[in-house]
Amino acid sequence: MSIAQPSQNASSIPQPAVGKNVAPSVPKPASALTPRFDAVLLGFAQARRADPKASSLGLLSLARTVMASPGGFDAIYARVATLESAGIFGTSDWAQPAILQPALAKRSLRLGEPVTTVVEALSEIRLLAVASGDYFHPGISAEQARHFLTQVLALNLDLLSGQLSEADRERPQDLGLLVQGLYQYLLDRLGYDSILESLVDEVRRLLAQGPVQVDSIKEMVGQIAVCLYDPKLESGTMDDAARLVSSLFGPSDGCRDDPGLEVYGARLLQMDEAALANEAAGFAGAMHDTGLVSAYHAVFVRHLRGQWDALLPRALGLSTTGTDALLCYSELVHTLIDEAVHPETSQAVYGLALMLERRAIFTEPVAQALWRQIRLPLCAETSELIRTVFGEAHPARVFLLAGVINLLGQPLGVGQGNNPTCQSAIGLSMWAQNEADYLLQVLAWAARDNEVLIRFEGDLVSSKGLEPGLAKEVPLDVDPVSLVLIPHLDRIYAEMWRLCAGRDDDLHRWINPEFYGWWVSHGFKGVAHYETGKINNYEDFVRTFYAAYHPYYNGEMSVIHPQPAGIAVTDSAARFVGRHAIAIQRVALSPTDEMRVYFFNPNNDSGQDWGQGMTCSTQGNGEIRGEASLPIAQFASRLYVFHYDTLELGDLTAVPASEVERVVVLGCNSWAADC
């Protein structure tokens, strides 16, 4: 996420001079400051209406003073609606709260310039109001706001001790104290008593979705560890929290005391085969229980290579299926370990295990493409980009290769990050599932040649020289494969859109089959007119979807390949939030015999409440790790466009009128109410 300053050419908030011999004064209560604050806020709102670039420095300086005063956070809380409508967040990322990232919010609060810290504090108080139901924001639901704040709290658990670090104490304008006060205020309002349990639940909820990128989750677990084992804090007995912590810092008997990588490496040299087998079982169990991989696990796997290769299946937790894949392609797998598995890329161990379980390399072109990826020289632009984001602990090609392994192991774990690139992220997921050799081909072009070529209606479209698409900046909060490939795909998708301009239907109809692959069905249905946005024959739209996808009405035809689709996302009050691209994975009965649509959502968090009693499930209803699901009627009520096979369409008249009416009522009472 780019941290765009909400005011002009400013790196700090003006601070009044303080004389050497002036005794510290008792802070004024917020009530003594609010009349002036309200006057300045009114003036700022008027200035912003006349000039969208009017400076916010004076208001931000006074906001900092108010927040630092007794009762100040409550005063700001009562004014969040006025602050937002006045334009305090401008056109910065804070104006779009749904795209904010907890890990970046921590840096803004703890390490940012004064302006950045104050704006972040205002944003989080705003999100607290949203989460508490005291303020409606069209761009984020109460549930999303609570999830965000819970993660921010998890990343700042070190402030629970009440002691500021040296870095916090030395921040200008007493910002360290301000941030600590904000954190305590959030805890008081959200519920301090259950915070650790909530944080553990939040981590588990996120991990259940099988994300490829887990750096921020690992950081959250690290903060949980600090809280859990701090004798000054009353954290109680929490077995689940302890399991999460041990999965990273002591998953096996040999590293249970978290001795450090060097000491653990020395211990391994003293272990016999029985001890190593015990270590392997411990690591594999922790990894598959949580989806997290300890740096110790990477050290262990590298130690096994060469002398103890027979223990690798046990260390990876492989079934007979995965073991067969390893044995069939042992040279390739061993080389992948040697090249890509390091403490800094430890998640590649999990990616490798899942890749083998998926039998992703049981296709000769994929195996050969992986050999090419191992030896692939990177262009200067790619190398610099990867170094900038992932550091220099290893050459850039190592991080990229580890990213490939993770993506092939978890195709449903790729996320779009803080970027409007859901179309491209869906492409990575579908290619990793269906045509991994093609994914590795376009990645090779992007990484080696800084160019991607995709055919569109008989002509090649090159990413070279094209203007940015929806993503105006390089996405930096994504996995290595996305980092390298998404900018090229985003530009190509935008170019295809330009080439289709003027056609008489939603342009996704022509772009998706060309962009994603031959398996995208050429039949296409949209519920709204492509120009006016008005609903067009809703009943026929619903009947067609059921006849194409519901096994009871399509001749029990399964979804063979994932199909891109568009949904109208709503918040927990069923209010329209925006349109979003997903991929329909399958339609099937759940363990409780409920017909559900299982889909891939690239937005980083698939467990959303869309109102009207529909909450997207990510586990417990038959989901494969990384899928979200809804009962088919609920899903259909949020569907906007979809692809289908015209030659395999079922009987539209067989779809019950009552089911069609149910879907239409749900849609028309939510996002389609004004269409």
Describe the fold and architecture.
The chain is α+β, with helices and mostly antiparallel strands and 675 residues long. Helices cover 51% and strands 7% of the residues. The chain has 29 helices and eight strands. A hairpin with a 5-residue loop joins strand 4 (563-570) and strand 5.
Helicity range: 40-55%
* Shape, per Cα inertia axes: globular
Strand elements, count: 8
Helix and strand composition category = alpha+beta
Distance between the termini: 33 Å
Beta-strand content bin: 5-15%
Uncertain segments: 1-25
Report the major sheet. 6 strands, antiparallel
Q: Determine Rg (CA atoms, Å).
A: 26 Å
Strand numbers in spatial order across the main sheet: 3-8-4-5-6-7
**Roughly what is the average pLDDT, rounded to an integer?**
90
Number of separate helices: 29
